[in-house]
Design a protein that fits this description.
One of its GO terms (biological process) is cell division. This is Probable cell division protein WhiA. Belongs to the WhiA family. Pfam families: HTH_WhiA, LAGLIDADG_WhiA, WhiA_N. 53% of the residues lie in helices and 17% in strands. The protein has 11 helices and 10 strands. The chain has a 4-stranded antiparallel β-sheet with strand order 1-2-4-3. Strand 5 and strand 6 form a beta hairpin. Helix 7 packs antiparallel against helix 8, helix 8 packs across helix 11 and helix 9 packs across helix 11. It is rod-shaped. The chain starts with a helix and ends in an 11-residue tail after the last helix.
Length: 311
């Protein structure tokens, strides 16, 4: 997804500024050099993101350097460090990005960069490239943006809510996480930031997953109904046999006797199948009523489910 987003170009120059500002807030640090000049370091493990940042920075006449190092931890991923040495041009860039306001640092309130809709989309795209992730749609839906800046985190949450996305925020150790848990919200976010291919892939997997879940629900429901039918039939047969031993079926009213005999002859039949076997026309509810009446008669004779034939 980040490889795709790294190739998305902003609509206007203001979009480049907004996207770079968000990227810098996610993965950038400032350096202080001589004469109070400022420099920039940006670190990422994604080569496409590194190329994106480098291409945006090069719109300004900066002297940049790229350092690639290999991680020593388990994954041993490459780490890309983009360095811009302290200079007056870097200070101008940070002012253009809204990170510096005069001699003061702007903690994360970039309202001046977010006046246009295209800039707001670019800003969110930069935030995802710099510190975002989304889980595979085969599992639980989860998209998050991670930053160590609480003011920047609040800005992202407000921005997502402005797009009518139910963004929530929590903290994890020293980081702040803005996240989405709803599948529709995640697809809307992907559409907003321009990840159209990823959106199609996400939706394809999501549709298959929803259909599989729907089939499982129907199968489970059908299985439960079948088990319920089997349990009822077993119970009915046991009680009818109890009545046969205690009073005899010939003592029953004709309608109940016919129903009892058919149930004994076809213990595995459903109610609808019993209807088709009756000589006289009767409805499914009528058959059900007769079977309940037979069960009530057995219960009135102290049926306990463990009765044995009389010797």
């Amino acid at each position: 997804m980040k490889n795709e987003l790294a190739r998305v170009a902003g609509e206007n120059n203001c979009c480049f500024i907004a996207e770079l500002a968000s990227l810098m807030r996610m993965g950038g640090t400032m350096l202080i050099g001589g004469n109070s000049n400022l420099g920039i370091n940006f670190t990422t493990e994604n080569a496409a993101v590194a190329r994106k940042v480098l291409s945006l920075i090069k719109r300004f006449p900066l002297k940049t350097e790229v350092v690639v190092s290999r991680g020593r931890r388990l994954k041993k991923n490459n780490s890309y460090l983009i360095k811009a040495i302290p200079s007056p041009v870097v200070t101008e860039l940070l002012s253009a990005l809204g990170i510096m306001r005069g001699d003061n640092i702007n903690a994360g309130k970039d309202t001046g960069l977010l006046r246009k809709a295209c800039c707001r989309r670019a800003y969110l795209r930069g935030a995802f490239l710099g510190g975002g992730s989304v889980s595979r749609p085969e599992g639980d839906y989860h998209l998050e943006l991670v930053t160590g800046n609480p003011d920047f985190a609040k800005t992202l949450q407000r921005l997502l809510k402005a797009f009518h996305l139910p963004a929530k925020m929590t903290d994890r150790k020293q980081d702040y996480i803005i996240y989405l848990k709803d599948g529709d919200a995640i697809t809307s976010f992907l559409r907003i930031i321009g990840a159209h291919n990823a959106l199609m892939n996400f939706e394809t997997v999501r549709v298959v997953k929803e259909m599989r879940n729907q089939v499982n629900r129907l199968v489970n429901c059908e299985t439960a109904n079948l088990q319920k039918t089997v349990n009822a039939a077993v119970r009915q047969v046991e009680k009818i046999r109890f009545l046969l031993r205690r009073v005899g079926l010939d003592k029953l009213p004709p309608a109940l006797r016919e129903t009892a005999e058919i149930r004994l002859a076809y213990p595995e039949a459903t109610l609808q199948e019993l209807v088709a076997l009756m000589e006289r026309k009767v409805s499914k509810s009528g058959i059900n009523h007769r079977l309940r009446k037979l069960e009530q008669m057995a219960d009135s004779l102290d049926f306990d489910g463990n009765s044995e034939p009389a010797e």
